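Example record for the data management plan.
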Amino acid sequence: MTTTASPSSTASPSSREATRVPTPPPAVSAKKRTPIFTPERVRSIGVRIAALVAFLVVWWGVTAAGVIDELFLPSPGSVWDAFIRANTWHQVAPGVDREVLGEQNYFLWEHLIASGQRIAAGVGAAVIVGPLIGFAMGMSVPIRTFVEPYLNFLRALPPLGYIGLLIVWFGIGDTSKIWLLFLAAFPPIAIATLNGVTSVKVDQINAARALGASRTQVLTNVVFPSTLPEVINGIRIAVGFAWTTVVAAELNNGIPGIGGLAYLAGTQLNTPLTIACIIVIGCAALVLDSAIKAIGTLVAPWKGKA
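Corresponding structural encoding:
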């Protein structure tokens, strides 16, 4: 009796290896993670540090040589001492045992937080109202025709032009300050939103409608994503305007407040403290701007890629 060999038994080792299913390679991420410290970024940081050091050296050299009087331009050391003094307990005067808290009975960081709270209230209200008005203007020509001249008029007004009127209306408390910061931040956000809505391509809207999208779906899926980067840019500009307006907002009854402290120190010819306040205001504005920029990259990663 003859036996028939099965195909598996008669197949040669080479044929079995040929029919073996190869193991798939491990999956590779489509998007490579960019290292935090690239050579270009390290070079950029190095250039900025070198520029800062050069600025400080020139500043120190000018004051050490006595080119400019100490009253007008104090040395970096005097500004640093004023900064430390504003953040610590110190004697009222040399030889006096009584100590006082910071400047005007508040630490410098408390002045900064007080101003930050006012800016958060004013800019926060502008972030809510500005995009709504901007969207309404962008989607409706009659609304744009009616509102845009008043918006541009408000944008052109300097804050000191109506701070007195706000004080008459709302008093010298925080309400007038918050209104001033709102009026400074509202126009750039509304105008940025308007520009974003009007810059949406008509072909994109028509394509969405041709696919059966409703008006609400067009707004939420086409207009809003296209406008969001412009809104974020408007918020960045508005926050910058708010920081430039904080001194004007805190001219009256601005303590605690970093702007009010800078103004009061200037009237008392305390130039080191004035410059320290200016530096703190600028650094805080830079930190906020970087945070808003990072948030914009996170919530609108499609910016510049369409």
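Summary line stored alongside the record: The longest strand covers residues 89-91.
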